[in-house]
Amino acid sequence: TKDEISSDDYVVNTLLKNIQLKEIRKRIEREQRKVLMDSLTRIKDLSKAPSVDTTTAGKNNNEIKYYVFDEEESSVRATRKRFQKRKNLIQSKGPVKPDFNKLTLKSPSKSRTHWSADQVKTQLGFDPVFKLNLLLEISLEDQLGDYGLVFGFKPFLDLKSSDAYFHFLNKKHWIDYSIRLERSTRFLNRAEFSSRYNATTVGGSVNLPLSRYTTISGALNASYVNRFNVELIVPKEIDDYDFFACANLYLTHDNRDWEEDFVTRGSFIRVELKDVFSARKTHNEFLTVSFDLRKYIPLKKMVIAGRVTGAWSHGTNAQRFFLGGTEDWLFSQFFNSSEYPFESSLADFHYMQYVTPARGFQFNARNGSKYVLANAELRIPAGRIFRKTLNSNPVYNIELIPFFDFGTSWYQGNPLSQRNPIDTENINSYPLNITVQTLKSPFIIGFGGGLRTTLLGYNVRADLGWGVEDYTVLRPRLSMSLGKNF
Fold this sequence. Notes:
By secondary structure, the chain is of the alpha+beta class. It contains five helices and 23 strands. The strands form three sheets. The chain has an 18-stranded antiparallel β-sheet that branches.
């Protein structure tokens, strides 16, 4: 039928089209292979062709068989290098073994010591005589922690008094040692005279650990001290100088446990022996023995802290101790400034020592060449007890501290001896010269409460204390101090 004939034609036409497509594909493949072979042949011919100087091409065209552009020449060389690399890889049998006999080893060399900042510290302080000061200190340490350098400078508010020091520490071996250089300057301006005091100290120390908590240390120091009057209008004979040699021996036991900046338990014991010699004046020599005993007992989250410290000094000019006040007490004063040893012997001023804390009293409530001081505190960490609700740092570091202080200082015999009057007054009434000595109780007692916290990175202390002197309770005294607890 007509429909069957049309269907057969459709099939035949489809077959013819498929055959034609196959022939076209084969023809295209043959053309591609031909072009590829021509390109390879041209590359081989170009690789064998000699280089031609283009400057002579226009003179004699018959001698030029091949002309190669610079860009084509570089591409040909790159293609030849790639083919050569592939050929070498195919022909290589395996990795080449190194000849260890040809290796040379260099001798070991010391590594350089690299220093980095370990600690940078700024600390405000206050002296009852020379007033406000600022400590600037930077500590450097090598990468292994074997060596350390410490640089410090502490200027006072008047910009005439200052301290500067440099320490070198060696902690590489079992025995640690250090070398230090210090320079101190003090300027005192009074109504009757103005004077300057200078001290330069060079020394070293050795630290020998006996156990995990116990160490024994020794130190030797040499100091040159001078003092001169800078007021020319009213001359005063206070100019003097001297050389001192000081030997120290320490025995320390410390097993305290710390939680951040707080001591939670343990004990601290230190015994010191100090011997001072004078190169010019033998009356400036003395020997001092001192001790410092501390105990910390945990009571739930609170801590009972107790301390007993004392010293005994003997010699032709014994060391002087001034009892009373608190360390770095802001806006404090030195009670009875006439007893400040700036005009006495150089040893008195160079080796004088404040004994603190004795809250409820000013500096120099008692003085002498011997002293005993006992302190007791109940430290209540209010911020840490409620730390789940109080998260700010000043509040977290708050401590409430009720305290009790008891101490005395004397010169001769025992504290109750009549040779240790508290007040002495000379009355000159011609023809009589009368000395009036007032005997009081040699002991001073302080009690009250305080608060500790950290403000702007500084440890701040506020204490309100009542002093008891000669069995009389004095009016309360508020002290704002900088620094940590004992």
